[in-house]
Amino acid sequence: MRAPPRLYALVAAAVLSVVGTALVPTGATASAAIASATTTASVAPADAPSKRSMPSKASKASKASKASKASKASKATEPLRPNAAAPPKLRASGNKLVDENGTTRRLLGVNRSGGEFMCVQGYGIFDGPVDDASVKAIADWKVNAVRIPLNEECWLGLSHIDPAYGGTNYIAAVKALVARLEAHGITPIVELHWSHGTYTGGDSHCPDTAYATCQKPMPNARYTPAFWTSVAQTFKSDQAVVFDLFNEPFPDRATSDLTAAWKCWRDGGSCPGIDFQVAGMQTLLNAVRAAGAKNLVLIPGVAYSNDLRQWLTYKPNDPAGNLAAAWHTYNFNTCSSESCFNEQLAPVIAQVPFVAGEIGENTCSHGYIDRVMAWLDAKGASYLGWTWNTWDCSSGPSLISDYNGTPTNFGVGLRDHLKGMQ
């Protein structure tokens, strides 16, 4: 998800007022950052903006590629069922996801935005309720997976984050939401959405600050490995939790050399056009596995998770063999036809499990996602709608108009489709 310019303007004053304050932790090692996540920050946060703006999916219209495709719907694989005793422990088997009994599964659900932006703006942790009643409303749509966007600075409890919304308090809130989802048989997908690092190159969204107040083109070497080490240690005993390494990489916007962008994506380091040291997907995966977590890991492509054409070529090495490809698509993206899906996505789906972590459109209708879901159904792939938040559906796009689960005109398409699959 990319936030609109107005959000960055509101956050800028707060960010600039603490630009001279040292971040905590100050070390570059994962151990130092992880240790700080167990305590509250000691430095007072900057004053929060006087009014919060909702992040917007409509601003993603500048992305060069987003794909989806339609075809005849299929029930070849059994979706996870809400309200089960517990969500399954998923693993990759060939190009499918299977549970502990070897049964083929699919992730079909929604995103629950808020954890990526509320804390860094000083307003809370989640946007709207995340109590049991609100989770039950999600489950009532026959959802079996919920993706939870996170902020690495809030998780690690850095000094500019209000301690009420960072460190141990933030982690406890995320763990509580994960537990509530699992109580309804829903698979939680924890995902890094906003991260640290000054970026002034192409498609820069908050060039005046290094803070995690917007999307960055790649994860950073200073904090992101520490974030994933801590997240993996937190959830490694619960293999029902899925890890989504990074929301929407766009190293290809920082350089015209696509090969260099893909190498940056996998290997990190000093990447062309990116101001900070990058942590590549291999480094983040290594951090997860070194922490002892064998959980399923989703790895997105480039071009805001839309371009997967070289995903198989640069696929990170996983000693656990438990990876899936992640992809995002909206109606305003370049790749939005069935012919494009067949050309760019089908080769990936043929080899690895495939999860469309975000599907949506800014039309306040559902014609585009209807096509996307039909195409993915026919391939036995997974998908999650953006987003279970009460924003305007044309600028969100939002699936709901209230947290009881009343759908918008856009949300009707996903809700009716999921219910019709039961």
Walk me through this protein's architecture:
With 422 residues, the chain is α/β, with parallel strands linked by helices. 29% of the residues lie in helices and 13% in strands. The chain has 13 helices and 12 strands. The strands form 2 sheets. The chain has an 8-stranded parallel barrel with strand order 5-6-7-8-9-10-11-12. Helix 2 (30-36) crosses helix 7 (224-235). Residues 3-33 and 38-83 have low confidence and may be disordered.
Brief rundown of the structure:
The chain is an alpha/beta fold and 422 residues long. The protein has helices spanning 5-17, 30-36, 118-121, 132-139, 152-156, 168-183, 224-235, 258-267, 281-290, 338-344, 346-349, 367-379, 409-420; strands spanning 78-79, 91-93, 96-98, 104-106, 108-111, 145-151, 187-194, 242-244, 297-300, 323-330, 354-360, 382-385.
DSSP helix count?
Answer: 13
Helical fraction: 25-40%
Average residue-wise pLDDT: 85
Calculate Rg over CA atoms.
19 Å
Assign an overall shape.
globular
Number of E-state strands: 12
What is the succession of H and E elements?
A: HHEEEEEHHEHHEHEHHEEHHEHEH
Q: Uncertain segments of ≥5 residues (pLDDT<50)?
A: 3-33, 38-83
Give the termini separation.
29 Å
SSE class: alpha/beta
Biggest sheet overview: 8 strands, parallel, barrel
> Approximately what portion of the residues adopt beta-strand conformation?
5-15%
Report strand order across the widest sheet.
5-6-7-8-9-10-11-12
Fold blueprint:
Layout: H1 5-17, H2 30-36, E1 78-79, E2 91-93, E3 96-98, E4 104-106, E5 108-111, H3 118-121, H4 132-139, E6 145-151, H5 152-156, H6 168-183, E7 187-194, H7 224-235, E8 242-244, H8 258-267, H9 281-290, E9 297-300, E10 323-330, H10 338-344, H11 346-349, E11 354-360, H12 367-379, E12 382-385, H13 409-420
Parallel strand pairs: 1-4, 5-6, 5-12, 6-7, 7-8, 8-9, 9-10, 10-11, 11-12
Antiparallel strand pairs: 2-3, 3-4
Helix pairs in contact: 2-7, 7-9
